[in-house]
User: What shape does this take?
Amino acid sequence: MNTNSIDKFSKEIIKRTSSENIFYYWKGRVGLYALLKAMGVKAGDEVILPAYTCVVVPNAILYLGAKPIYIDVNSDTYNMNTALLKKAITDRTKVIICQNTYGLSTDLEEIHSIAQENGIYTIEDCTHGFGGTYNGVPHAFYCDASFFSTQWNKPFSTGIGGFLTTNNKELAQKISTLNTALIEPTSKELWNLRVLYFVKRYLLNEYTYWPLVHFYRWLSHNTPVVGSSSIDEINTAMMPPDYFKGFSLVQAKEGLRNIKEIDKDLLSRKENAHLYTNFLIKHNKNRVEKKWFNNHSFLKYPLLVKEREKFMELAEKSHIELGEWFLSPLHPVTGDLSTWGFIKGEHPNSEYLASHVVNLPTTPSNINKVLVFLKSNLDLIL
Ligand SMILES: Cc1ncc(COP(=O)(O)O)c(C=O)c1O
Assistant: This one.
């Protein structure tokens, strides 16, 4: 690998995460798996996580034979309800995973202190939170380790990709050893990625957004094109054979190109989030409260609606780039989640949010167009 590109990429990341040790992967989830393994998670152990996440998170726990213990979220922060945390800790608890859902910070102070009292490791799932801060310190700094995603929709993208960071030297040493088993991406996968970069850069706009999103989903479910998740990861809790895969120079170069815009990008996300909150306050609708704004990077702006399918259809017709994370407490799997140990009815807030949420774009091509769309559909907003 051309270490020059990787070094330059690393420098940018170190600057924004205050982390000493960074390890790169084909996808962020592989970093989570490596961390859990380095923390000694094994069969019979328990790992606590929010009951509102992406299915690849419990997958990484289950691949090690451990048990995911879900904690319901707060409906106003979309993150773990820390009041439920203490009760969930047992003598088998090894790790607490907390999350920056949509770039909204979680209550890291409280989680960190509960973990310390109980001698438990913490991992911050920063897949949505690059560039955000909590109490003035960058996301990733509070916990023993964190992992990030640089997948398509993230603040800067390598197409797919991710990395982990830790300031714990012992963990870093163990991860270095584990990483000797990483396999390399195939040249077919890398060509796939290059084609997708081209499509994103030159063909994606507000008119092509929805057709391309549908086409990409169809391709990644029906063909071997490089997708966010494989069918195995969505249908089973068994590790795909080529899961433990490393990063590539192709991804590093794309990341370097995109990270240049990060400061401007983060600023405009916050400004647009302010506009959404002001608009929603004016119309007395659900919103992210201003008191938390300092801590958030706003990858997306969550909004709760009635009749979500209708709302999404209307958005598509108006060429509004709405997102749909998380349609399920273990996105994107809908229906029976018992394969992942998630029992229906046990996490009411997560289930409620998952059935009503849509995500407003925080870097839309035209924010006024989104606001006009919201105004003409106020009756569908909760
Ligand atoms: C909360 C959460 N955690 C983990 C991941 C996994 O990231 P990656 O796709 O880079 O493996 C995602 C995916 O977007 C996510 O939403």
